[in-house]
């Protein structure tokens, strides 16, 4: 397995440390003493005041009073027998109408990015995407991509050897991204994920955000997947952002919660031999065939740059920003094609080649 270069090694320690690395712990350490705080759902019942009568106990042996429907059924047996039949007929008619109006030839369904576990602060820290940024990310020329290729400074996704595919409910192979908006390594990786997936489909509703202002590589500018959609004829994309970039005590506000199936993938692949820093993010699963834990390049190359400045460099093969983001995007594209057999819709994918990292390599 290819190892990340010096200065981009993964860091499993709490996010509030001033430590270099290429990933962040999935659960930021909250050092506040919560054991002394009362749990409102477990508060004791208030004591009975002197002279206050005890609650009356229900009679366990008393038969329940007859309901209005029971009395109606007794007096109108034929009508009550026909009611269930009528309900079944109505349900069948509704199914036929839905089937008939589904229609063929509709646009490919969009993958709605997960919004489970949303907190009250879901919009904090995000803003409108600067004009021209997405266009720059999705229009890097094939010549530039071919010149950059897959540089050794970026880390290739790792082959899992699994035979079971990660398939979405619509039957398409799925790409799963799990990160957090406070995380600078997630911020860096989102640039490459957006560029790579844009060669297979189209994002809409992307917004701008940044990593934590108090973490290592502070205020790294990036995209926010929260609330966005992705439409593709061949792939499905799901993103789960665990926390916002807004501090809450010694941690960050919860944004989304993985499903049990997504948690199972984290438990299976977010550990050795797929990573030397178990429990780290960002986590990228490509059809269950390739996984990537941590950023493919160091966020240091994005420091001090706005989204507009980052995007403007992506078509310059001599730029360190382009070599990092385009190179990682090429690796992700190659892994998607190797895992699924799906060829990118964009001609810019010709430079992707094949992924080079596998478990035990």
Q: Your description of this structure?
A:
It is a single chain. The chain is of the alpha+beta class and 361 residues long. It has a domain of 246 residues. The chain is 27% helix and 15% strand. The chain has eight helices and 15 strands. The strands form five sheets. A six-stranded mixed sheet has the order 9-4-13-14-3-15. Strands 2-8-5 form a three-stranded antiparallel sheet, with no helix packed on it. A hairpin with a 3-residue loop joins strand 13 and strand 14. The longest helix is centred in the N-terminal third of the chain and has 26 residues. The radius of gyration is 26 Å and the shape is globular. The relative contact order is 0.21. The N terminus and C terminus are likely disordered.
Radius of gyration: 26 Å
Number of helical runs? Answer: 8
Main β-sheet, spatial strand arrangement = 9-4-13-14-3-15
Average predicted confidence as pLDDT: 75
Largest sheet: 6 strands, mixed
Low-confidence stretches: 1-21, 29-67, 93-123, 347-352, 356-361
Output the structural class. alpha+beta
User: Beta-strand percentage?
Assistant: 15-25%
What's the layout of helices and strands?
Blueprint: E1 24-25, H1 68-75, H2 77-102, E2 110-112, H3 133-137, H4 142-148, E3 158-159, E4 174-179, H5 184-197, E5 202-204, E6 207-210, E7 221-224, E8 229-231, E9 236-241, E10 243-248, E11 251-254, H6 260-269, E12 280-281, E13 283-286, E14 290-293, H7 307-312, H8 320-340, E15 357-358
Parallel strand pairs: 3-15, 4-9
Antiparallel strand pairs: 1-12, 2-8, 3-14, 4-13, 5-8, 6-7, 10-11, 13-14
